[in-house]
Design goal:
- With 422 residues, the chain is α+β, with helices and mostly antiparallel strands.
- It folds into 2 domains: 148 residues, Thermophilic metalloprotease (M29) (Thermophilic metalloprotease-like), CATH 3.40.1830.10; 230 residues, no CATH class.
- It has 14 helices and 20 strands.
- Strands 5, 6, 11, 12, 13, 14, 18, 19 and 20 form a 9-stranded antiparallel sheet that branches. The protein has a 5-stranded antiparallel sheet with strand order 7-10-15-16-17, with helices on one face. A 4-stranded parallel sheet has the order 2-1-3-4, with helices on both faces.
- Strand 19 and strand 20 form a beta hairpin.
- The radius of gyration is 21 Å and the shape is globular.
Length: 422
């Protein structure tokens, strides 16, 4: 292990899941090529006092082959060939015993482009049945979780095409985005969150009723916010009061909108990789919270299937917003000019929205509410939550407050007047 990777491991364990507080930790890797890294993580976690550490290996390539070779009716938990790619009950197991889960993802953009939307939807639906407790308690902090990334060659070639050093360049870009290039990455994130916490506090003091987004692409969108909403960031605390970080990296401040209060049009600004399929240059038109029109230059079928799944009900509305998030255009990841084709990074280079499920911790006492109570408060309930990027260099965001209209963003960044105290 090189020193930089050692610092990355420390960041994931110390700042990510606060490993010294854990009795048990599940490390999930989406590609088996990262097993050696996971084993180093396990060794270090055990040395920090974690009693039980388990590695769970995914297989994105195997998932593709399974979906390609099986019929839609065979994509069930009862089918031995499909079970490995569906069964996420292990996530429920660790959530129920208040353990930690560290996800190490590695995107392969476009890997499922040749798979029908019906099969992908069936796989997704069946998978969700196996980790209900995990999903319902994702933001209650009764268990700890962190998502981070490792590179792979195909992903690297997507970001740095025709470059013989693509893998190393992507790894370096990932580590830099995660502040691992600092002498002390944990302290670097603590310093960043000190400013972030102050901005979050200021937004909460404003009692924002709604937001108006505009840019030269044609985005003209109004989003209502529910009463008692809360602005939060990824500087979270676990059940013992110690800092944790659910996304590494994370440069966003976010909340959840009123699911019936979005009107207007919004244009995407970065590719959206959705279940291994790429959606590009798309727009969404909202009326009273619902997507009533859409279009995409690439991946329109995947977009349609996500917006309007076959099994639609009160608790599965992916055609409504579940998140609004502020990220400055001048953020560290944005300044690289890279498109990562991975939401974890691209969302932290751009203001973004999410379709689907809302955050229970984005409203006062939301962690104590049932799905029905959250819905009654205006927070969308769905089985899925997927972010898409809308930030531009000229993005303007104006907040409607009891004191009138207050600019939040000008030219893609927080307004200097908003930040005057900081």
């Amino acid at each position: 292990m090189i020193k930089t990777e050692e610092k990355y491991i420390e960041l994931l364990l110390q700042k990510g899941v606060s490993a010294s507080d854990l009795d048990s930790l599940l490390i999930y890797i989406s590609l088996k090529e990262h097993l050696l890294f996971a084993e180093e993580l396990k060794k270090r976690a055990l040395s920090l006092g974690v009693r039980e550490v388990e590695i769970m290996i995914g297989d994105t390539y195997g998932l593709h082959d399974m979906l390609k070779e099986t019929t839609i009716d065979e994509i069930t938990l009862d089918n031995p060939k499909a079970r490995h790619y569906i069964d996420k009950s292990k996530w429920d197991e660790y959530a129920k015993k208040h353990g930690g889960i560290l996800f190490l993802t590695s995107e392969i953009p476009g890997i499922l482009d040749d798979i029908s939307q019906e099969k992908i939807q069936k796989w997704s639906t069946e998978q969700f049945k196996t980790n209900k407790f995990y999903r319902e308690n994702l933001f209650t902090n009764i268990f700890t979780w962190t998502i981070a990334s490792l590179p792979n060659e195909k992903w690297a070639q997507q970001v740095f095409p025709n470059d013989s050093n693509a893998y190393d360049k992507l790894y370096e870009a990932i580590l830099t985005a995660c502040m691992v290039d600092n002498d002390d990455p944990v302290k670097a994130w603590d310093d960043f969150f000190s400013r972030c916490d102050l901005i979050t506090q200021r937004l909460n003091e404003m009692d924002i009723k709604g937001l108006h987004y505009q840019n030269a692409l044609g985005t003209d969108l109004r989003i209502a916010l529910p009463p008692n909403h809360i602005w939060v960031n990824s500087n979270e605390k676990n059940s013992k009061g110690n800092p944790i970080m659910c996304n590494i990296p994370s440069y966003e401040i976010f909340s959840s909108p009123d699911y019936a209060g979005t009107n207007g049009i919004v244009y995407s600004t970065k590719p959206w990789v959705l279940y291994g399929q790429i959606i590009e240059d798309f727009y969404l038109v909202f009326k009273d919270g619902e997507v009533v029109e859409y279009g995409a230059k690439k991946g329109e079928e995947a977009l349609s299937r996500f917006l309007y799944p076959k099994e639609v009900g009160t608790m599965n509305r992916t055609d409504r917003l579940g998140e609004v998030a502020f990220v400055e255009y001048d953020s560290p990841i944005s300044r690289t000019g890279l498109v990562y084709y991975e939401t974890l990074f691209d969302e932290n280079a751009s203001c973004h929205l999410a379709l689907g499920n809302s955050f229970c911790n984005a409203i006062v006492d939301g962690e104590k509410m049932s799905e029905e109570e959250l819905l009654a408060c205006g927070l969308n309930q769905a089985e899925e939550h997927e972010d898409f990027m809308i930030g531009t260099e000229d993005l303007s965001i104006v907040a409607q407050t009891p004191d009138g209209e207050v600019p939040i963003f000008e030219n893609g960044n927080f307004c200097k007047k908003l930040l005057r105290k900081f």
